[in-house]
Amino acid sequence: MAFEIKDNPEDLSEINVTPLVDVMLVLLIIFMITVPLMKNAVQIDLPKTSSKPYTPENSPIRLSVDAKGGYYWNEIAINDEDIMRKLQAESKRSLQTDVNLFADKDVRYERVAQLIAVVQQVGLKHVALMTQK
Predict the structure, then answer these.
(1) pTM score, two decimals?
(2) Tens digit of pLDDT for each residue in 99-108?
(3) CATH top-level class of 61-129
(4) Domain boundaries, the chain
(5) What distance in Å separates the CA atoms of residue 23 and residue 103, rounded to the nearest whole number?
């Protein structure tokens, strides 16, 4: 058997991808067969408990920011200075108090960020940003 060597480099630039495609198809078939078998490999019978759902010790504080940037404490309008004072009083009572933050979609983010910063300054750690379903 003799091999022919050509002087034209353009003929050598083509790569034969057929063997690569064959190998990839075989691997694909192997994975398609083995993955469903691995999914149900471990059967676990979880224990049953009689635990109660989590209920916070204190009712959460509901802070709201309307579209104009006004703050509300449990649906009652409040100014910026009073929020800091009331949050400090709540943090002295319990640092585990939850804060639910409702913000209008048209409010400037600056007002929401200021409120979050005040909540963090007083030491409350459980802040939830509330949305609609």
Answers:
(1) 0.55
(2) 888 888 888 8
(3) alpha beta
(4) 61-129
(5) 55
